[in-house]
Every structure is written in C-alpha cells, then in structure tokens.
Design brief:
There is one protein chain. This protein has 2 domains: 136 residues, no CATH class; 32 residues, no CATH class. Strands 1-2 form a two-stranded antiparallel ribbon. It starts with a helix and ends in a 5-residue tail after the last helix. With 172 residues, the protein is mainly α. Helix 1 packs antiparallel against helix 2 and helix 6 runs antiparallel to helix 7. The protein contains 7 helices and 2 strands, in the order ααααββααα. The protein is elongated. InterPro entries: YdjM-like. Keywords: Membrane, Signal, Transmembrane, Transmembrane helix. This is Metal-dependent hydrolase.
C-alpha cells in the first residue's frame, strides 16, 4: 500500500479509539518502510518487505507495549500503527513475511491487489468513512480534536448560532 493509505487507515482508527495518540500511530503506520531508509543510512541494505515487515515482531511489540510497559501509550500507539501497516500490506499480492524463521509470505483476503490499485484507495476510504460513522454514532464523551460535535457545542452555549450554522455539516 501507499503511505497515504497507511496513514489514513491508522489515523482514522486511532482517532476513534484514542485521539491524543494519532501522531504516534501515524508515525508507526509508516515505520516499517522508513526503517529501511534508516538501515540504509547505517550501511545495512535490506530489501523492501523484509525484516522490517515481519508480522510477529510488530505484534509482539504491540502486545508488550499494551500490557507490560509504556510511557503514556505513545509506544503502544506506534506499535499498533506498525501492525496496521503490516496487515494492510498483507492484502497485496506480495504479502509480508509471517516470521523470520520461515520464507512463506502472509496474505490477507488472498492478496488480491497490487500496490497503487484503486481497490487500495477504496479500502482506505471505507475505513475512514466507517470510523467517522462509528465516532458519530457512539458520541465519544471525551475531547476528540478531529470530530467536533457542533450541535452539542451550540446547545451548551460554547459557540454562537453563526458558528454552528457555518460548521453544522462538517464531519471533520
């Protein structure tokens, strides 16, 4: 998948679950690719979708940061962003390595499309729309910097009628 779709999917899901962690999650959603560039700068050449794209490594990191130790959830969000990257790359024809001890590739839904296909953008759009819909249905009780409740702010008296009228149809 392209970076745009990785960031859209991870950012939308994280915005629904934990809005303050969106930046860390989006950074993690692109990390498996930019880790390759970091390795190249240190003189170590690794191929794309190689050691940085191993599903078990990202999953173990995400579970460890979720249940064992983390500082304010930042590393947890970063690791789950990496897991989302691996899962979305697994939908492509080339797939991702499941484990460093196996040469087999892991595919989701049969690995039906190539990177850059219109299906990739449709999946990202579907996830974003579903997350926006879910956020509006659940009416999150906390502060969500990306999804404002304009009618609620108007009813509380936090904004005036002109501001409500200007923003009432904005979803984001």
């Amino acid at each position: 998948m392209k970076w745009l779709n990785h960031t859209l999917i991870a950012g939308a899901i994280c915005a629904v679950l934990s809005p303050p962690h969106v930046a860390a999650c989006v950074a993690g959603a692109t990390a498996p690719d930019w880790f390759e560039y970091v390795a190249k700068l240190t003189g170590r050449h690794i191929k794309h979708r190689g050691p940085t794209h191993i599903l078990t490594h990202w999953l173990i990191a995400a579970l460890a940061f979720t249940f064992v130790w983390d500082y304010h959830g930042i590393l947890m969000a970063f690791a789950w962003g990496g897991v989302s990257h691996i899962m979305t790359d697994a939908m492509t024809v080339s797939g991702v390595p499941f484990s460093p001890y196996s040469d087999r590739r892991f595919h989701l839904f049969g690995g039906r499309f190539r990177t850059g296909d219109p299906v990739e953008y449709a999946i990202a759009a579907g996830v974003v729309i579903a997350c926006i819909g879910f956020s509006h249905l659940t009416g999150s009780g906390g502060f969500a910097p990306f999804f404002y409740d304009w009618s609620g702010l108007y009813q509380q008296g936090s904004i005036d009628g002109a501001e409500w009228k200007a923003n009432r149809f904005r979803l984001i």
